[in-house]
Amino acid sequence: MIQVTINNKFQKREDTYKEILSNGVLDDLVKKVTGHTDYDVKYIDKTNKGRLVVIEQENEKDFVCLSDDCPAGRNSYFQSFPTTVNKYILDKHTNKRIFYYNLPTLDKINIETDYHRMMYRLMATIGTEFLNATEYLKEPIVAFNSVADFIRIRTNELSKKQNNSTYVTVDESNNTVIYGKVYGANKYETTLISIAMNAITMAKTTLYEFVEKDLNELPKASRKALEKIGINIVKMDSEIEKHEFEKGDSLRSPKYISNLLAIYGPKHCAFCDCDIPQLIQGAHIYPVADIKKLAVPLEKKIEMATDGKNGLWLCNNHHKLLDSGIITLSTNGDIKINTEDLEKTSLNFIKNSLVLSRLPEDVITPNFVSYLNKRISAAS
User: Domains in the chain, start-ordered, CATH in brackets?
Assistant: First the structure.
């Protein structure tokens, strides 16, 4: 016999799940999941976290997340889904599936914006089956096929329309690195992106949690779920930054990389066309070695060393050429080659590698120029 279990109370509403699942809605849901119409349903007098319907039959357990029928905004439409995913991952049942069922919204809102489509694709990437999406959405839902695919969509379709709460990149060892905010609704997006990125890569996945306001880590259930699937979670706090700053002059701190991602977007060399993330590094304009020599408090040194305006994305070659002084920058953004002691073949190679003669105007900010002047003064 098919057993359906539903916690009946909403967290912030007076009506119940039994009411919104009447008029054949639950019958349709169960039939789409099981292929059958005969079932027993048990409504429990508890708060429903995850807008979850659990269906059990023989040796199978199914988790069905319901969309928000009264969404207050685009985020609220999906906020319950990560809670369902956490329960799905942490459940010990060996034969289980996860579904999403769209309920009609009481207010006619657009549930097919670029952001909505991205979230649907993330849900599909972790294996979610959509029971009735074709009744509500014009376009089919396609899972992301790689981390690069997600970064491209996030950058091209969404970066100009929202302030990203979560940044994703690939490091020099081909590992997936996620920098996620955990405050407010951001925690839902961070959880879902982390699970989805981990599902499409064989490489190691690390999540760095932003310390923000009074919250500096994901909810306990989210952390347990991410750790269960092998994601390494690291808290981005002052101790990590202090350790990174003190251990060497080639700073690769999580805060610095996340700040560069926030300012410049995905890894792409500022001097050439290279956008292979494994070959791109965060290059300091005012070098860490010179910052360490300053007679200022350690906190100020770390602030300067992790400031995204004190850097550029550069490929390995151009990073070394900048650090060695073979390539220099002027305060108006001109990219120059120091031809002294260069063989003609070397000079031609460098010239051909540069696709710009001047950095874009939006890069040459007052803070950037200030760091550049400090670099020039330290080198003279």
Answer: 3-143 (no CATH), 146-236 (3.30.750), 241-380 (no CATH)
* φ, ψ dihedrals at 4, nearest 5°: -110, 130
Calpha distance 321→337 (Å, rounded): 9
**Residue ranges of the alpha helices (H) in the chain?**
17-20, 25-34, 81-90, 114-125, 147-153, 186-199, 220-228, 238-247, 254-264, 288-291, 298-305, 316-324, 344-353, 366-379
User: CA 81, CA 65: separation in Å to the nearest integer?
Assistant: 6
Point out which residues pair with 177 in neighbouring strands.
169, 206
Q: Which of 183, 228, 246 is nearest to 209 (CA)?
A: 183
**Rg of the chain, C-alpha, whole Å:** 25
| Successive 10-residue mean pLDDT values, the chain, 380 residues | 96 92 94 96 96 95 94 75 96 96 81 90 97 94 96 75 75 95 84 96 93 73 96 88 79 88 94 95 95 95 95 97 96 94 91 95 96 92
